[in-house]
Amino acid sequence: SLGLSIYLSVQGGVVGVVTTNLLIRGALLFSVGVFLALVLNLLQVQRNVTLFPPDVISSIFSSAWWVPPCCGTASAMIGLLYPCIDSHLGEPHKFKREWSSVMRCVAVFVGINHASAKVDFANNVQLSLTLAALSVGLWWTFDRSRSGFGLGVSIALLATLATQLLVYNGVFQYTSPDFLYIRSWLPCIFFAGVITMGNIGRQLALYEYKFIQEKTHQD
Fold first, then answer.
1. I need a surface site. Which of 7, 164, 181, 201 has the fewest CB within 10 A?
2. pLDDT at residue 43 greater than cutoff 90
3. Which stretches are annotated as coiled coil (predicted)?
4. 3-class DSSP state for residue 179?
5. Nearest to residue 38, comparing CAs of 14, 62, 5, 74?
């Protein structure tokens, strides 16, 4: 009876820690998503930016108010979903599991987005193919899991469809659409973003797992 009480107490403590850590991870992922949405919007809107021009703040917040929260929510969902899928498949993701790798992944993602706005190509097909190759290269360099690739493609397609519907209904528009109502390179950006947030989510989940293991051993 005493042993059972101790076991239940330990398990209850672990469940509480898991719930708390899940909320913390969700909040962190949401914050990262909002931050990246603001930064990437700045890269898309600004041209020839020097060091902090006077209108930089207004440029950061020039997108519709709902875009950063939507990106934050999507980031939280993706970042929590990736380690959950890994656990369900019984395939813990161990490829390049350190923060330096995650930071490089974020930097490459920002670079891909920057290229979509800044680099001049002969035509949109060439731009789209280049960004597609860069996005797959990002997955190969920082992920390499089949579940990561599958989730990336699936979520990118859903996000592209949602964007098409938003533009169709007049919520916003692209200056030079070449793929129905949007730019043809947009799915590549979505895919790279999903892989990036999945990487961040996995890294946060790894720290939670280590913390719970240490707490269980201590108890």
1. 7
2. no
3. none
4. strand
5. 62
